[in-house]
């Protein structure tokens, strides 16, 4: 079955097709003219690279917030540009079908907005699939089997913890503590403890490059001295990075604890033996799997392709409409 599987994330947008696999993987940024904010001049890396150096009159914007649409027209302009780039009509037809992933905790209004945007952006028939279910499917798990699965999806804007079984949800919790918040925490730590100001992309590089915990390693960071304004280097020890990120990682642990409490006793056995699956870019944070394993005493498995498995699962749904139907309300 032809069509597009789409993961519209707060940070990254990923599109797959059954024929060609992942055909687009770009930052969720759109460059617009301030006078015409609903027309995309550029999307993806090209738009993201102008953050902090945009000429007057044009602005890079993020069309998705916490995994959902806040401004219909902006989102429509973005999705239209994404589809045009990912799926030229000569290859995938003029109005391809689409399955779009949606946060498991999205409201019916947010789901309807996504359906409308998909249609208006040129998709013929649009199905929605909860992100953790799509991610699990993308990792080879059958979300229709009579066995409970527990997924922790740590994206850019939100962390979602979801348990599901046999086509239905068992328990779900989410929080706004995820990749962006981890980056923010490092930015503020450097500002308050070391008196240097760094750009968002530098704070992000510190987060991604953070050494494994407990190894006594360090990382050199370049920024601007908050007092003199001059460029300055700072050496960050691993322990400092862990401390700076602790409030955010603790929040994610608490969200998981709350979700676990709601899982029916019968299903807990499945979770205990299978463990939990982590996905989303935030699951790559060094030391996080270990923290979850130590806190909950459960085996933790990180998806092989944590940044694309949701789009892969949404794409797989094109051949498995029964999964979309089961998880459609
Ligand atoms: N190696 C890494 N270590 C830590 N964080 C990482 C790593 N690689 C990517 N990230 C973070 O993952 C986040 C993006 O993940 P992902 O693409 O899954 O989010 P998203 O789907 O766009 O967001 P959401 O699910 O909230 O809508 C970013 O905050 C990014 O900094």
Automatic annotation (TrEMBL):
Gene3D superfamilies: 3.30.420.40. HAMAP family: MreB. It is found in: Cytoplasm. ATP binds at residues 156-158, 204-207, 281-284. InterPro entries: ATPase_NBD, MreB, MreB_MamK-like. GO terms for molecular function: ATP binding. This is Cell shape-determining protein MreB. SUPFAM superfamilies: Actin-like ATPase domain (SSF53067). It comes from Rhodococcus maanshanensis. GO terms for biological process: cell morphogenesis; regulation of cell shape. Forms membrane-associated dynamic filaments that are essential for cell shape determination. Acts by regulating cell wall synthesis and cell elongation, and thus cell shape. A feedback loop between cell geometry and MreB localization may maintain elongated cell shape by targeting cell wall growth to regions of negative cell wall curvature. The keyword Cytoplasm applies. Belongs to the FtsA/MreB family. Keywords: ATP-binding, Cell shape, Cytoplasm, Nucleotide-binding. One of its GO terms (cellular component) is cytoplasm.
């Amino acid at each position: 079955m032809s069509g597009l599987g789409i993961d519209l994330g707060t940070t990254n947008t990923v599109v797959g097709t059954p024929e060609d696999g992942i055909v687009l993987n770009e930052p969720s940024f759109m460059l617009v003219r301030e006078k015409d904010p609903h027309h995309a001049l550029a999307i993806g890396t090209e738009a993201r690279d102008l953050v902090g150096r945009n000429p007057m009159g044009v602005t890079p914007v993020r069309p998705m917030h916490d995994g959902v649409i806040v401004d219909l027209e902006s989102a429509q302009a973005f999705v239209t540009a994404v589809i045009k780039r990912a799926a030229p009509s000569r290859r995938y037809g003029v109005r391809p079908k689409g399955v779009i992933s949606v946060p498991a905790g999205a409201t019916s209004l947010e789901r309807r907005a996504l359906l409308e945007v998909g249609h208006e952006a040129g998709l013929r028939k649009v199905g929605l699939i909860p992100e953790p279910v799509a991610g699990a499917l993308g990792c080879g798990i059958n979300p229709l089997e009579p066995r409970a699965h527990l997924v922790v999806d740590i994206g850019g804007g939100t962390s979602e913890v979801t348990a599901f079984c046999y086509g239905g949800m068992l328990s779900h919790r989410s929080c706004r503590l995820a990749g962006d918040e981890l980056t923010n925490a490092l930015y503020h730590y450097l500002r308050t403890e070391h008196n240097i100001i760094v750009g968002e992309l530098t704070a992000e590089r510190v987060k991604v490059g953070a050494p494994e915990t407990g190894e006594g390693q360090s990382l050199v960071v370049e920024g601007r001295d908050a007092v003199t304004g001059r460029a300055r280097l700072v050496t960050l020890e691993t322990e400092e990075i862990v401390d700076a990120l602790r409030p955010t990682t603790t929040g994610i642990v608490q969200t998981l604890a709350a979700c676990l409490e709601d899982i029916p006793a019968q299903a807990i056995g499945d979770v205990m033996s299978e463990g939990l699956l982590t996905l989303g870019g935030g699951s790559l944070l060094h030391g996080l799997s270990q923290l979850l394993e130590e806190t909950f005493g459960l085996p933790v498995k990180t998806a092989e392709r944590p940044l694309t498995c949701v789009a892969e699962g949404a794409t797989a749904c094109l051949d498995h409409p029964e999964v979309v139907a089961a998880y459609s309300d």
